[in-house]
């Protein structure tokens, strides 16, 4: 590659006759007519000329009807500049000869018109020997009538030319009144003005001139009947005109000339001016320029066709010798009459005729002519013209086989560089090169498929075309002065091979172009390298294309160049980036991964930095150096990283680099910003959630429940929703307006030195956000380093955090999360709610519960700790301090704990009304709350129920005598061991007749426990506990005091805040109930609950177990106390509905009844700390239910009509009957089955002996045993009998009611206590004192 370039840059050969190659040439140019379009005069602006040139260039294809009525396609190539040396090669290849001239100028007076006509005549010197076929055309000359100030109008575009009928046509504009509105072109013949005949043609001079003169008259030229093709024609001119071609805008100035003033202006071309002149007022009126050009091209065709016919019919004995310009001296002195030279002359004439035939639109005939000429020239060894024949033969075949080849995008220099993405990739280049020739089988306009099918057999095959081009190039290479022709032939072959998609072979032909040595100037060499780069770009050799562009760039600033052009060097270097896989957009460059060659990329970027610095563009230099550091960082070693970083800091100190694009003023090239996405490297982003007390949450009552319809919930859908939520960056918490918010970044320092980051801040969208800047220094160590960025939202809505901004090494970067390679979330969306108040919770209680200095408590400051004895109640003061600028308008306090609700409400209590009365809390204000804490505890000792509920009685013979004497005897007690409320039902116990409340035993058995039972029911027994008692250990009660509050704008949006304080209560043991039992009481509606109590505290306890009785218990001592309790109504049991076969279903009900009536109060310690213990959870076995429950019947006993009440004295007389009435009322709340009523009289001798044998002392009148009928609810049964006493004394009558034998097993009694027979007595027994008469 470099050797090829050295050939080009070496000492040039002797001067050739052709100026420089046309790098835009293609095989289709062989069939085109060359027309020169020039600007004349100094009044026409360049922009206006370029605008007109663009309109003229669009008329590149015209269909003309020949003499046989067939349509022929005529193609035209327009050039703005053409070297006269190249025109001399018109005999060798006719498409190189200029066949027409169009001049465009602007005139304001007759003298201006005369000057323009002279300049037009001077252009005819381009063809001094008349080889222009006498069809010179003077281009459109614009003239405008001067305005009152004398300034000519520069606006307006000229109309297209119309061919003149003869060479003596003089055209002028007439007054407004006599203007023909159908034509703007006039011919003066014999002093008479008449419109020109656009259909007439002549072989004489067909000169054409277009002039525009502002008149209030005709605004259009004569229209042509021929058709204008819309084919895209390559309009690129020589390299020296490339800059002019880009100027396409036309400026127009206002015209103030009136119609009367315009009619006075009359312009006449000089009398010796033979060229047709067209005058148009303004560009706005030049509407038929295309049709006029169409007529002009038609005239050129007819002239060309006449020459072709003449040459085809000539029969010359001595044909002239056609020569290339450098061949004339070689034939001096040669014998032209020799047979070889005659064949040479005939072959060259035949070859020229083939060129004319191809230009005339007959490619099939041209192929035949080329073939004959090649056969003739091959025998003469005329290699130069034989090569031209081969080239023409290939061109004619390409016209037939690849008609759309000419429509491909022409080779043009890059006027700007698109830096948004890759435009130079191999795939993109190949696609662009094929856009105009995807369908290579399409037919040219005007030809039928059948004709092409018949004539295509004369064409060369695609392989033959390439082979003929190769032979032609070999023959051209034999001639030193044919280097330009050889170069253009190679370029044409490249175009054909690109069309055939044979890119490797096209590269071989391009390599041949590299080795062709031409005499070129520095500017032309730069254009040559650029053209080679464009061709390699089309072939797909991107790296080689970039290599030649870089060589061209270096040529611009070569040491031997006296005027180095750094701007052009910079532009060419930019164009090399695509080939080296470098895109100046860092985002696109990173997408390609590790493509390209890092060493070459680093070198070209360094050259860009140096070039931009020589240009004086400091900002541009800094931008390229920043891109070098950022993009090539993975390929730089640590010393290189440090060196490039120091250079970047030096450059940025002169001109900093911001995140905005840079525009190069000279070219309009946009250089995208460079953001340091990898310096530092961001590995992780975490949006910090507000602390527990600062979180904002939606009010629970306003949160809609998800309505999933009738479908079953699927956890997979929930997971997918969560994944979508995370991928979109939607966080599951809210920020609050005005609060300080944080974002945590995990950064890594890739540089071998400490990296200083200044002005680092968050980038947000949608919601106004006050982002605070931070200055950070990352240590020179591997690993992640955490950085926290803070800010404050200034409004509410959906805040989007899209990245962060930082300044590193003087370069300010906007690093978006979506562009960071290690992050998957493009942005984070946080809902910012309106401003809410903020509460701080203060407590004036220390850990011991005593008042002290206020201290903050809560989720961030700690919990509230209390230490209480079981059963103790404590008041805790809680202060709510509003530390925000928003008032607290709503406030709600709830308690949360793992305890059940009943237990929670028992332990913690507070007044909601008192707190609500203190609202609203203004900013800086306070509200107080008193929290009552009760150290609740299970005062029943843990244990299990024994298999036998009737073990050793709580009473023993060693117990002290009863403190209360007298009273009726009571029955033996039933023992109960402490059981929890959740104990399982006990096993089936053994029936024990001694446990029955009413027994049918003999009197001796009942008297056995009379005295002791009475003593136990009325006395307290104290014992000393030596063994450790289970349950006497500390426990902790924990709960959270949840405070929800709202106010300000946040309350209107239905948002609130919540904070919570943990309350921990350490409960130390105080009093414990180890065992309990139930005994009957003296009154029928009461019973005694006997409790064994243990003092588990470390201090003496003063226990109050009844309103009037108390006892002192030392630490660790236990005592037994009887507590009178009202019996439980039977209706309470039946309404509860908890039943079981064993009777345990009512144990909890009866236990709750007893617990509600028994409350043990105590004071403890030196401070007499009060407390209370309850029997919550106590249960009783079924054997004790009769003692606790009320009887289902109500007694109504009367003696002689007087109601008997406890303590009433009854008297009688011996021998006189006493009337005894017994009434039973059903109070059970349900129908009562039949009962057995028994009346029994006995005598109590007060010695423990009861005498039931009173047959000799008394008798009864009526039944003493009977069965009652079924009693409905509230129904009463009455029975009367008489008692007659025979002796005086004290008698007692016992009235008993028990279930009848037939109803003993009914469901009513089974539901009550199926294991026992029920009996109800009238207590106390009826006592009658009988006296003698």
From TrEMBL:
PANTHER family associated with the record: TRAFFICKING PROTEIN PARTICLE COMPLEX SUBUNIT 9
Domain Trs120/TRAPPC9 fourth Ig-like: 1193-1330
Protein name: Trafficking protein particle complex subunit 9
UniProt similarity note: Belongs to the NIBP family.
Pfam families, sorted: Ig_TRAPPC9-Trs120_1st (PF26254), Ig_TRAPPC9-Trs120_4th (PF26283), TPR_TRAPPC9-Trs120 (PF26251), TRAPPC9-Trs120 (PF08626)
Trs120/TRAPPC9 N-terminal domain location: 270-404
Ranges of residues in domain Trs120/TRAPPC9 first Ig-like: 698-811
Assigned keywords, A-Z: Golgi apparatus
Locations listed in the record: Golgi apparatus
Major localization class: Golgi
Lineage: Eukaryota, Metazoa, Ecdysozoa, Arthropoda, Crustacea
Domain Trs120/TRAPPC9 TPR region, first and last residues per copy: 523-641
GO cellular component, one term: trans-Golgi network
Species in which this protein is naturally found: Scylla paramamosain
